[in-house]
Amino acid sequence: MSFAIHGLPVSSGIAIGHAHLVSHTSLEVVHYMLPKNLVAEEVARLDAALQTTRSELTALRANRPQQAAAEFDAFLDLHLMILGDEHISHAARSMVEQEHCNAEWALKSQMDELVMQFEAFDDAYLRERKTDVIQVVERVLKVLSGHPGHQPPTPQHDSEMVLVAHDVSPADLIQLKPHQFCSILTDLGGATSHTSIVARGLNIPCVVGLHHARELIKDRDMLIVDGEQGVVIVNPDKNLLAEYKLRQSQFVLERQKLKRLRTARATTLDGTRIELQANIEMPTDLPQVMENGAAGIGLFRSEFLFLNRDDLPDEEEQFSAYRAVLEGMGEMPVTIRTYDLGADKQLKGVTRVASNPALGLRAIRLCLAEPQLFRTQLRALLRASVYGNLKILVPMLSGASEITQTLQLIDGVKQELKNQGIAFKEEVPIGGMIEIPAAALALNIFIKKLDFLSIGTNDLIQYTLAIDRTDEEVAHLYDPLHPAVLQLLALVIGSANKAEIPVSVCGEMAGEYAYTRLLLGMGLRQFSMHPAQLLGTKQRVLTTNLPEVTFLTQKILRADDPIKIRELLDKLNAA
Ligand code: PEP
Ligand code: MG
Fold first, then answer.
1. What is the enclosing helix (H) or strand (E) of 505?
2. Do 191 and 305 fall into the same domain?
3. Which of 151, 290, 336, 351 has the most crowded CB, counting CB atoms within 10 A?
4. Final residue of a domain: which of 144, 169, 188?
5. For a pocket test of ligand 1, which of 10, 335, 365, 433 has the largest count of ligand atoms closer than 8 A to its C-beta?
């Protein structure tokens, strides 16, 4: 049966491929169907794995070392209890019996359900117990992996597969970069969550916030993904398939044509030069930056170096990564943001869950709370500065004392390097991200103390409108055209221009073609975005009549009715 589901478009294009379902906490478990005659055998395999795990835990408890704390017993008891809980063992068994899926998949699915229930608890202690559920299931999975059952069908080529997940963390997604899935779909997530940002960087059609895609779509279903409209068509008929294949080739053709703009200068019709730079997550993104003719790196989200690992990158490792990007970009500016960990980008093994992680110990707050970790990054950055045109960008600053502390730390690290006779550039510009309304409204503090500004619209919108950017339930309220957001943007860009301090926008708004002229009209001359959006943005810049859009933008800024604002924006984009 053919049907369509709707979500939030994240990355445009048309994909046509077969569904590949993955479970949400780890991407390692495959899903496959068993022939009816092997189901009983699979149930027995699951039972045996559960029994082995139980024996392992009981043995651990019996042989616990004398000096081990009493909590050790409590911990093992809890794990034994989870293992015996009917939501795990019985439910997984019935799932294999009824749905004829493999044991690993059944276990993972039950675990996901439980994890979701735990996540909904108000009590922080109970919420954290989801980690125990995950650990127990991982233990059983390990046992199962030692006793492989029926082998899954040979996977298709990645490029024909659409990854369907309930949720994928940014850390998981970054690991998928080397794969060539033709599209990614998730039930959860907002359009500017970090998962969506990484997905956009993969340059394939993606839709998030689909709510029930993983339940409704079956493994190997044929899917059409329309990344522009946020629509997924499941098991389309022949006519629909033919129509979308045509649209897909037209889209590819358009992209090909854009490639001609790679070396063109980004100037408006009156010759005003516009700086179009790229956002990256890893040094391996550099080829894409070059292919799309970026004028520099406007945002290197350095925290991605810290994800997906049990240890932390030491000074040498960080130094090599920063040096590689600086050397790769030659004379061009490279803006490296100090790590923005916390919220939806947690270090592995961090189990403390803040009640409001986006308002908690994130970005510069975490850096200042862990100065040793921060100093290591600053040393690596300053040492790398001699290999190119480095700018250091600090995320989520909210006021004067954080700026002062950061600058003092940087001075301290410089002094340390000097004392050790280690080379670095004395004049590395230090900039601040404007992504908290307080920063926008108290901009003078930033202008006085910093060398440049970069507006993070993703967070600025999140914090101005009090909308969690990762939560699809409130995604409809996430509105870049809200008059409050427009006023803040105009204020920051206008004040920075007046003070002659460089300002750019590096949030997702910078790469959305619908807003290019609006931002130009506010006076913005520097944009940073996903490499894949650079040429499309350049095309819009090249056809922009700056005095006209400046005039129309003033009208938009005077309007407060959302319908009127939309109408004026359409007019601006049609001009
Ligand atoms: C932003 O907030 O707009 C931004 C660029 O930073 P991040 O998306 O990494 O929070
Ligand atoms: Mg941000």
1. strand 503-505
2. no
3. 336
4. 144
5. 433
Counted domains in the chain: 3
Instruction: State the CATH number of the domain containing residue 278.
Output: 3.20.20.60
Q: Which ligand is nearest to the CA of 454?
A: 1
Distance CA 21, CA 498 (A): 52
Let me know whether 126 and 230 are in one domain: no
**Both tokens assigned to 151:** 């082998």
Task: Report the distance separating Cα 224 and Cα 234, nearest Å.
Answer: 7
Residue type, 379: R
Q: Which residues surround ligand 2, an ion (CB under 5 A)?
A: 435, 456, 459
Name the residue type at position 314.
Answer: D
Catalytic residue positions, numbered: 194, 506
- Please tell me whether residues 84 and 170 are part of one structural domain: no
> Domain with 9 in it: what CATH number?
3.50.30.10
Say if residue 282 is in the same domain as residue 396.
yes
CB of 470 shorter than 6 A to ligand 1: no
What the block records as the tokens of 257 is 């044509």
Q: Tell me which of 223, 258, 293 is where a domain ends.
A: 258
Structural domain for 56, as ranges:
36-144
Tell me the whole-structure pTM to 2 decimals. 0.77
Note whether 233 and 298 are same-domain residues. no
pLDDT interval class at 65 (50, 70, 90): low
Q: How far is the CA of 339 from the centre of ligand 2 (A)?
A: 11
Radius of gyration of the chain (CA): 26
* Co-location of 52 and 136 in the same domain: yes
Pairing of strands 503-505, 452-455: parallel
Report pLDDT digits (tens) over 220-269: 899 999 999 999 999 999 999 999 999 999 999 999 999 999 999 999 99
- Same structural domain, 498 and 363: yes
Is residue 303 lining ligand 1, measured as CB closer than 6 Å? no
Residue with tokens 């990054």: 377
pLDDT value at 64 more than 90: no
Question: pLDDT tens across 258-316, in order?
Answer: 999 999 999 999 999 999 999 999 999 999 999 999 999 999 999 999 987 878 999 99
Q: Please work out whether the CB of residue 456 comes within 6 Å of at least one atom of ligand 1.
A: yes
